[in-house]
Design a protein that fits this description.
homodimer, about 180 residues, alpha/beta, seven-stranded parallel β-sheet
Chain lengths: ~180, ~180
């Protein structure tokens, strides 16, 4: 067993990436304070091939030194758009057929363990401010609220980690049945 | 639907956490340069209830200002130990019955999509330096090499995100069959 060199990784060019099969998922960041978290979201979005990222409210946008430092170029491959008012965006996404899922701890949330994405549905996953979370009105207006179950003393996963967990969970649920069937 | 207040989160006290059912997983960080990554690993380890974290080589250890800032107290709930030489640790872990899994991109790696942890096995997941990855001799000596499949232009997930993805994947594979059976 040996490690793979960078040039062997079959990395897509930005052009190939834009034309590749995508995970039917959007990341929506609303009032995310830390540019490092935005940069990490780009990198994770690139790795798992999301369709697009929306940066809402005060969320930092490229070009931005801290985003570049963390995204390591993924800010150029992942399509993104700034939308000032997230309520308008959510209404538009629903009209376009996206299921809007707020990632939050709420009284009638669905545990991510039980989340069962339907084959024909595409999802927009909303992540909120590092301290205040997803806004109350979005939690109320979302199609579903997904909660990452936590079993420890803190119950506050880092937002970058949460994005990775939610996208990986979605990817496995979307891809595994097909993959397993082909073995 | 309304957000849950902090006091409703059923967070465990540090004492309760130490006595709770744990995920049969260890995190091993080897020569991790960034104290922020170490802090995030503590927070994720707390959330998913790992047994213990090992900090090897130059990996920063508590007490450390940057770790505290990112771990938000999880450095006090997650059991940890500094071991200078990771080869000694790996040999000890194998003797204690742990399967040692290096998280790396390697020529004969197992895709995390195909990773099928056995019910009675416990695992130690090794994460390496941010730039150089897991050391070659560890990749060769590990029981298995797990690779997070990536579909984009970069192929270099942030280490904090990788830890979240690997632990969440492990947790779902360990817990879901039991959970689904009980529905």
């Amino acid at each position: 067993m040996r490690k793979i060199k960078n040039e062997e990784l079959n990395r897509l060019s930005v052009e190939e990436f834009k034309n590749s099969d995508r995970l039917e998922a959007l990341i929506v960041l609303d009032d995310v304070r830390s540019a490092m978290n935005v940069g990490s979201a780009f990198r994770t979005g690139d790795a798992f091939g999301i369709e697009k990222m929306y940066l809402c409210g005060i969320t930092a946008q490229p070009p931005h030194r801290e985003i570049n430092k963390t995204a390591l170029g993924a800010q150029d491959s992942v399509e993104w758009e700034h939308v000032e008012d997230i309520q308008t965006l959510v209404a538009d996404l629903k009209k376009s057929g996206y299921k809007v899922a707020a990632i939050e701890q709420a009284d009638e949330s669905t545990s991510l363990l039980d989340f069962d994405p339907q084959p024909n549905e595409k999802y927009a996953f909303i992540f909120g401010n590092e301290v205040f979370g997803v806004k109350d009105e979005l939690v109320e207006g979302a199609d579903l609220v997904l909660e990452i179950p936590q079993f420890g003393t803190k119950h506050s996963l880092n937002i970058s980690v949460s994005i990775g967990v939610v996208l990986w969970d979605f990817l496995t649920k979307k891809r595994l049945p097909k993959k397993r069937a082909s073995i």
